[in-house]
Amino acid sequence: MNDSSDDVSLTDWRALHADFFSGSRCLVTGGAGFIGSHLTGALVSLGAEVSVLDDLSGGNVENLAACGANRPLSFLRGDIRDAAAVEKAMAGCRFVFHLAAMGSVPRSITMPAVYADVNIGGTMVVLEAARESGVERLVFASSSSVYGETPTLPKHEDMPMLALSPYAAGKIAGEALVRAYAKCYEIDTACLRYFNVFGPRQNANSAYAAVIAAFGKALNHGQPPVIFDDGEQSRDFTYVDNVVQANLLAARAATHLNGAAMNVACGRRVTVNQLARQMMTAYQLDSLAIDYREARTGDIRHSLADLDRARRMLGYAPVVDFETGLETTVRWIRGGGIRG
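^ that's the sequence the OP posted. Answer follows.
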C-alpha cells in the first residue's frame, strides 16, 4: 500500500520513485478531481510540494483529504482561463500536470463552444503561464478519443487523429499547442492519451458518468446496468494508478520528450457486456436483465492501446491489472464511495 493515508491506492509510489520528487514544487490543474486527486496523493506521498488549482466544477475538496495531513499541499479554487489564478498557483513550480478540463464526450456535443473555451482556451493560458514561469516540464492529459472510429487495433500514436466529438477535437487542439510549445520555447512537454480510466472517486452522479461508475451506482440500488448499443463494444479499461504512474514517469524522464504523445492503458480489451457481468456477479445480482438502449452519438466501437512508445520513452508498464483494479473499485463503491 501507498505510504500516504490514501486507503484506495494499490501502489507503493516510493518504491517506484524513491526521492526523485522530494522538495519539487508541482502544480496539478484539476487536482481535486478523480484522476487529479490520485496524482496529487502520489506526489504528496513522494515529498513533493503540491499546488492544486481546481474550479470544483467536477472535483471535490474532499478528494484531497486522502492526501495526508500535515503535508505540503496548497489548494486554490480557480478557473484555468483566469491567467492571474494560474500564475499564482504555478509560482515556483518545476513540473505542471495539466489535467483540468471539461470531460464527457456526450456532454461536449450539447455545449461545444463552452468545451472549446475551457479545454482549448484554458490550455493556452496554462501553457503561457508555464513558459513565463520557467517550468521545466508540462504533462498534458489527452485522451484515446482523439483516434476516433477506425478499424485498426491496437491504436498507435502515428495513426491520424479523427475527432468524433467536440471533446475529442479539444484534446487534439490541446496536443497541438503542447507540442508547439515544446518546439518553440524553453519548456519540455508530453501528451498522455488516457484510455477509459476508472477507479475510486470517479463521479457517478451525472448523466454522463463513465461506465464503471454508472454501473456501480445502478447496482448499489439493485437496478440493472444500462448499456448503450449491444454491449459488444470493447474498451481498454485502465485503473487510475496506471495513469498516475505514467504522469510521474513523464515528469521525471531523463531525455527531452518534445511534446510526444503516448498511450496510457493496460493493452487489453474488455467488452462492456463482460464488464457488466463481472460487476453483477460481484454484487450477486446475476439474475438482473441488462437494460440495453440505443447507441450514443460520438461513442466508438472498439478501443485498444499499443503501449510500445510509452514503454520505450518512459519505461511505462501497467502497475495494476484490470481485475485487481475492478475489485478495488467495486469494494469502494459498495462501501459507500458513491453517493445518491
